[in-house]
Amino acid sequence: LAALGLVGAGLLAGSGPAAAAGVPNTVVPVPVSVVSDGSTFTLTSTATLTSDDAGVGGYLAGILRASTGYALPLTVNAPGPGSIALQLSGAPGSVGAEGYQLTTTATGVVVQAQQPAGLFHGVQTLLQLLPPAVMGSTVQPGPWTVPGGTVLDYPRFAYRGAMLDVARHFFTVTQVKHYIDELALYKVNVLHLHLSDDQGWRIAVNSWPNLATYGGSTQVGGGPGGYYTQADYAAIVSYAASRYMTVVPEIDMPGHTNAALASYAQLNCNGVAPALYTGTNVGFSSLCVPLPLTYTFIDQVIGELAALTPGPYLHIGGDEASSTTASDYASFLGQVQQIVAAHGKTVVGWHDITHTTLQPSAVAQFWGTTTSDSAVAAAAAGGTKVIMSPANKAYLDMKYTHKTKLGQTWAGLIEVNTAYGWDPGNYLTGVTGSSVQGVEGPLWTETIVTSADIDYMAFPRLPALAELGWSPWSTHNVTAFDQRLAAQGPRWRTMGVNYYHSTQISWP
Ligand code: TNX
Asked: Is residue 282 within 6 Å of ligand 1 at its C-beta?
């Protein structure tokens, strides 16, 4: 099991092959190191929980009580450890802000971390070491065993994201929370919400109310659309935070803006509002770059959104601005970057923005289908960080095979092993090492309508991308990954996740 990277990572001297009896090949993303001691812990009806963090303790207790039916009393900041103890002390320094150490003996489980985020990720590993029935929402049969040993784990990349396009089709707060819960199982820590596009504007802006009430009133195919009130958006942000996930809101501009232009005639260069749009073409709309009101508009929209967003990033889109001249695009990007900075946020944009002069802190999100891009490489050489979302690997809206009913094919077919088969840290020429901020799986929703559709396109590819974002490259091994992914199938069945039964995986 060199695949587990134990020897290569050299984290635990003498740890030996991870094939040691008892270590299950079940955890996705694969941890940095797993060492079995051959013992087994069994959670019983008299078990207790202790936690140094009330939120993470409550999260774990909620899941365990529902499926085991046990009382599992939780004590926060207890003097002595419970059968399962979540501790903000004792973790080795190497685990950093998001990592953890999980130690299981015959008598109990201890998760140690430096920060609550690390406890939360350790809890995800613990859940994957328990039988799949632990994910049930009603009482299931045990026994509730955890294999004994030590897991030491921390992420490769700081940014491990998933994007949901709520503009092409609108998804309710409940649906977004459901996706957040699914993403959290795989240690994803960023939810990027694509809040505006030609077909819909999905966030209420008090200073420009028609954006949501009119611009949000339809979607692809002509359905009713919808939008988030500011309270709705705040509820998503705080729910994401409870899962240690940062929300990155995107207002796409200067292109992909028909819904805004339809809502306010005065934003158009010719003063005439276009009709709402319910098709799926791209590249036909542009904010009016020479118009001073354009920047008042952006300042007010960004100002309200920044005030509602605790995370550091604000995504300004910038993709496919084919109705904007190159010089207008450059001038626009210069001004918008200043507006975002004035509201205290860091710009993220699709990698098209690397054709302009970027502020040092700006982050580019690569969505190309090639492994070299001279503008992105030049930006990286100048210090720009890059989020890797190559469309032919990471796009969750691409079909798996020609038979897949949902999705598109423009970037190719993406089976699960294709989604897994690339190294984000060494993929794009000139974009390696510290230039890589992380990985994101975007889900565009021209063809995606329901939560079952989201599940089908994200599972099992999202866990593959999550592993690329979390696990050390030394652990990369498609055979071992496919086995660990197979072990997720019974969990998804228990949870009602409508996953794609890829024939590349031997599902149990
Ligand atoms: C390209 S990727 C787009 C989106 C579409 C997507 C469909 C990118 C930055 N822009 O507007 O929804 O393709 O796959």
From this structure: yes
Query: What's the CATH number for 2-153?
Result: 3.30.379.10
Q: Give the count of beta carbons closer than 10 Å to the beta carbon of residue 80.
A: 8
Q: Tokens 């920047």 map to which residue? A: 295
Cα separation, 237 vs 229, in Å, equals 12
**Ligand 1 contact, 322 CB (< 6 A):** no
Q: Where in the sequence numbering do the catalytic residues fall?
A: 320
Q: 408: Cβ below 6 Å to ligand 1?
A: yes
Q: Where in the chain is the domain with CATH 3.30.379.10?
A: 2-153
What token pair was written down for 116? 């609550």
Closest atom of ligand 1 to 320 CA is: 10
With tokens 């406890």, the residue in question is 119
What is the fold of 159-473? TIM Barrel (3.20.20)
ipTM: 0.93
Q: How do the pLDDT tens digits run along the chain, 508 residues long?
A: 333 333 323 223 233 334 334 445 789 999 999 999 999 999 999 999 999 999 999 999 999 999 999 999 999 998 889 999 999 999 999 999 999 999 999 999 999 999 999 999 999 999 999 999 999 999 999 999 999 999 999 999 999 999 999 999 999 999 999 999 999 999 999 999 999 999 999 999 999 999 999 999 999 999 999 999 999 999 999 999 999 999 999 999 999 999 999 999 999 999 999 999 999 999 999 999 999 999 999 999 999 999 999 999 999 999 988 899 999 999 999 999 999 999 999 999 999 999 999 999 999 999 999 999 999 999 999 999 999 999 999 999 999 999 999 999 999 999 999 999 999 999 999 999 999 999 999 999 999 999 999 999 999 999 999 999 999 999 999 999 999 999 999 999 999 999 999 999 999 9
Tell me the C-alpha distance between 20 and 69, whole Å. 32
Q: Which residue intervals of the chain bear CATH 3.20.20.80?
A: 159-473
3-state secondary structure of 374: helix
Q: Is 504 in the pocket of ligand 1 (CB under 6 A)?
A: no
Atom of ligand 1 nearest to the CA of 398: 14
Question: How far is 72 from 65, CA to CA, in rounded Å?
Answer: 7
Whether this model's pTM surpasses 0.90: yes
Q: Name the β-bridge partners of 196.
A: 201
- Please identify, by atom number, the ligand 1 atom nearest to the C-alpha of residue 444: 12
The Å distance, Cα 349 to ligand 1 centre, comes to: 13
